[in-house]
Amino acid sequence: MENALFGTETEYAAAGNMSPTEVAYRIKDGIFGSRKYGLIEPAPREWGESPGNGGFLFNGGRMYLDSGHLEYATPECRTLDDLIAAEHAGDRILLSMIDELQLKGEAFFIKNNTDHFGNTYGYHENYCIRSSPRTRDFVEGILPFLVTRQIFAGAGMYKPASTRPRASRLPALPGTVDGSPPPPFQISQRAPFTSVDVSHRVRFGGRPILNLRDESHAGRRYSRLHNIIGDANRSEFATKLKIGTMALVAQLLDEGWTSEVEIELEDPVASLKKISGEPTGTWMVKLANGSEMSAIDIQRVYLHEATRRYLGRDEDTIWVLRQWASVLNTLETDRFRLDGYLDWVTKFLQLKSFAAKAPRGWEEPALIKLDLAYHHIDPSVSLFNLLQRQGKLQPIIAPERAESMMVNPPTGSRANARGRIVQAMSTARADSDINWALISRRLGERASYGDERTMVYEYVDDWVDVQRADAWYLIPYVIDWGAIAYKNHILELGDPFSEYGAEASGYSATVPDWVGA
Residue 61 in contact with residue 413, Cβ under 8 Å? Predict the structure, then answer.
């Protein structure tokens, strides 16, 4: 997509006969111990992490432990199909390690956003923009879009009264169009857990619709739009539409566009939850001026301006504008015709069919298992993959493309250089320069928490920290989104839109000379 760069972060849930934390650690160690998919990072990158907490992958992405679960960050992508392939590559790497470690049937990974016990975990989207996402115009411009995007981007969630989210301010659910009680179902998995409209923090400042942490990883020329309200989709169609529409809206606001139509919401959080609780409702929300407007019509305001500016610009944009318009029209006339395209619609109809035959109807406990089965990434146990094999869900990319992305970076961005260099460093056994005992001893210190004493590690922000401390003997290399440094040999990757072809080739060729030196 022209002028666009995007990537996602997926926090995987783990289930099975082993503890989720044990599964996460064993898979992480398998990924980097085998050197099949990436290279371990020696230094902790966040406070409280331990050395070897994760690493970068040959595809330019990153896999690491976050609060005891595995998180996968895709490489920066320039096309929507590359992004879909990169997301699938993360799934496939995990499945490959489950097979290799002989954990089949013992451990499962689930790509969703809630455990149905009141806990949530994230799926984050990142977009490269040139203006700051913290300005009032940008925030006010994007909130109505994010609140209403769930009508086609939601993953859907079965939510009986017994699974009320923690710290939630869920209003009483309104009735359906015909006045009947609404089913216990949410369009969005993240919406019920949201408590504030914007915040600079993710967990401790209240879960926001929009996270304002502007950590660009690309110097001063660019900013990063960090969206944490999105659901983890299984449908490739929904993923492509979700990321594509957001990328276009980000460009609109980046160019200074403000809507001439009044779409500012009176209460974004309340509107978000109201829409989510209305799978069969009208999706009407209250605006700041006291009037009401439907979520579909709010989306059409953005669609109209994006069409006016970008129609015919490139293949991705043409696809997004066409499907955006078509989906909004279908949602307005007969939303359940989108079965097989939108996750929430597909799942809702599967649960509805099951509930109609179950003794307890919508209160049947097995509905939670069916909900979770939709999100299993293992095709042998996944409801989503079963529906796909039955021809009810059409893939967008060929499986071979995702297979290739497991070990090859996408083109068109600095991820290409990063992936190639990481592969060269792995081949040269750069990790043999790591003295794990020395790192643990020098970076770690004991801290008291109540009656327990815990090892807490200092962390490395970037290669500059190591350079200033003259500590390359301790931390031989630092790999980051915006730079790679190996024993004082620095390659800056400040432009996210550049492949750094010649620089990456030269750096990779010299890496073997630095190992053991």
Answer: no
DSSP string for residues in 88-108: HHHHHHHHHHHHHTT-TTTEE
Of 66, 339, 462, 495, which one is the catalytic site residue?
Answer: 66
Query: Within 10 Å of residue 380's Cβ, how many Cβ atoms?
Result: 11
Annotation marks residue 66 as catalytic: yes
Task: Compute CA distances 303 → 187, 246, 282, whole Å.
Answer: 21, 11, 20
Is there a single domain that holds both residue 104 and residue 126? no
122 CA to centre of own chain = 7
DSSP letter assigned to residue 70: E
d(CA 343, CA 235): 6
Model confidence over 11-29: pLDDT tens digits? 999 999 999 999 999 999 9
Phi, psi angle pair for 14, to nearest 5°: -120, 145
Same domain, 193 and 309: yes
In a domain, 437, yes or no: yes
User: Could you read off the pLDDT of 313-328 as tens digits, one per residue?
Assistant: 999 999 999 999 999 9
Question: Side-chain half-sphere of 364: how many Cα atoms within 13 Å?
Answer: 17
Instruction: Report the predicted TM-score, pTM, of the whole model to 2 decimal places.
Output: 0.94
Instruction: For 12-155, list the strands marked E by DSSP.
Output: 13-16, 38-40, 54-57, 62-66, 69-73, 107-110, 123-129
100 with 142, same domain: the answer is: no
Q: 270, exposed or middle or buried, with CB in 10 Å at 0-12, 13-18, 19+? A: middle
User: Do residues 350 and 364 lie in contact, with contact meaning Cβ atoms separated by under 8 Å?
Assistant: no
